[in-house]
């Protein structure tokens, strides 16, 4: 997989028809594109992965695998890239999808939560107050968890409204992302909530170092 990643990352185009014979967990990571625009951007762009039909399907399947059999009531995705994976997961589960938005976009009653994102910028996210009832079991989905600030704010919003984001081995639902980095914030989330991600253990150190 490491060699496949290196080869695909050097390619300016992707083959949307090619599917490897052996589809081990994370094979689709090779479809992601590296940052070519400098330090003001994320180090890797997963949106290239979403253009590949089988890659997207397998990515979502891997994210949902740890939650098989869990009674999930709703999937929530975080603005904006979490909308793609979250809505895809909701469609597979045949559940509703809740968009957790950056502040200022919702024209209805909202609950707000300030946070600091992976780049160190202070922001605010909002969720509509009429979608989550006490005890509703929520699967929270985002594209990436780097410092954990964004996901932690989403968890706080859900829990402030009485929703349930699962603790490991306690109750269903939880947190899913392509990558949960081994950062202080990433560890905080994984220690307290049931989590799923797509990075094989042997590649996790490379992703932690943004290589």
Automatic annotation (TrEMBL):
User: What are the residue boundaries of the Phosphoribosyltransferase domain, all occurrences included?
Assistant: 70-162
Any one biological process term the GO annotation gives: purine ribonucleoside salvage
Q: Does the keyword Transferase apply?
A: yes
Pathway(s) annotated for this protein in UniProt? Purine metabolism; AMP biosynthesis via salvage pathway; AMP from adenine: step 1/1
> Which subcellular locations apply to this protein?
Cytoplasm
What InterPro entries does the annotation carry?
Answer: Adenine_PRTase (IPR050120), PRTase-like (IPR029057), PRTase_dom (IPR000836)
Q: Is Ligase there in the keyword field? A: no
Example of a GO MF term: adenine phosphoribosyltransferase activity
> Which reaction equations make up its catalytic activity?
AMP + diphosphate = 5-phospho-alpha-D-ribose 1-diphosphate + adenine
Q: What class of enzyme is it?
A: transferase
Question: One cellular component GO annotation, for this chain's record?
Answer: cytoplasm
User: Which keywords label this protein?
Assistant: Cytoplasm, Glycosyltransferase, Purine salvage, Transferase
Which Pfam family, an example, fits this chain? Pribosyltran
Q: For this UniProt entry, what is the primary localization, expressed as one broad class?
A: cytoplasm
Q: Which domain of life is it from?
A: Eukaryota
EC numbers for this chain: 2.4.2.7
Q: How does this chain assemble? A: Homodimer.
Family to which this protein belongs: Belongs to the purine/pyrimidine phosphoribosyltransferase family.
**Can you say what this protein is called?**
adenine phosphoribosyltransferase
């Amino acid at each position: 997989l490491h060699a496949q990643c290196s080869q695909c990352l050097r390619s300016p185009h992707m083959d949307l028809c090619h599917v490897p014979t052996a589809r081990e967990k994370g094979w689709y990571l090779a479809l992601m594109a590296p940052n070519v625009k400098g330090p003001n951007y994320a180090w890797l762009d997963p949106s290239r992965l979403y253009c590949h039909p089988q890659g997207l399907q397998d990515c979502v399947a891997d994210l949902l695998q740890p939650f098989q059999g869990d009674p999930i009531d709703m999937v929530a995705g975080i603005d904006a890239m979490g909308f793609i994976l979250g809505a895809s997961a909701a469609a597979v589960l045949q559940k509703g999808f809740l968009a957790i938005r950056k502040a200022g976009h919702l024209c209805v009653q909202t609950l707000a939560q300030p946070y600091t994102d992976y780049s160190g910028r202070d922001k605010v996210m909002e969720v509509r107050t009429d979608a989550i009832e006490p005890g509703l079991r929520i699967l929270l989905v985002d594209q990436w968890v780097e410092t954990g600030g964004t996901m932690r704010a989403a968890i706080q919003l859900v829990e402030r409204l009485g929703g349930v984001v699962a603790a490991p081995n306690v109750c269903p639902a939880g947190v899913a992302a392509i990558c949960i980095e081994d950062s202080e914030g990433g560890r905080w989330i994984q220690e307290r909530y049931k989590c799923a991600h797509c990075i094989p253990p042997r590649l996790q150190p490379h992703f932690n170092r943004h290589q």
